[in-house]
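look at this record:
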Amino acid sequence: MESFRTGAVPSAIPGSQLHGIEEDIACAAGSDVPVLITWPDRDRRESIARAIHAQSSRHTKAFIIVRCTGLRQPLLETDLFGDGNAPVTGSESGAIARAHGGTLLLDEVDELSLPVQAVLNQFLDTQHVPSMMTMDVRVITGSGRPLIERVLTHEFSEHLFYRLNIIHVHAAR
């Protein structure tokens, strides 16, 4: 795992892509809109997300990672939103509550079930966690493959795709 200081960019990115990635990171860091990172390598996606967070105004707050791969709907919903009974600061609170004021990376977002996508879409609309308060969270998502492929096969919500794809950082340049 790479650590980042403010202004650092992920190493081991081919030189021809580095300039574009630096610009993408700077653009994303200067805004609070959702970012979609499409990159085959999970570690690179995480490194890019960490660089965005480190350069953003949220850099002093939490950076929380949720890996969506292999988690079933009830477990993933609890991981994201908590059990609804825990206080926001408690150990049983969800990742969104723990990321309050900071950044949440949802990696392998293409693995989310349609029902969880619907709940995530509602959260992005309202910034409100079910059974809790309004949260202030920057959402970055990652995928190893183009999400549009999942949209075209109706396995990923088109509305959520467009909501997450405001700034897109991708390997192919």
The CA atoms of residues 110 and 143 lie 6 Å apart.
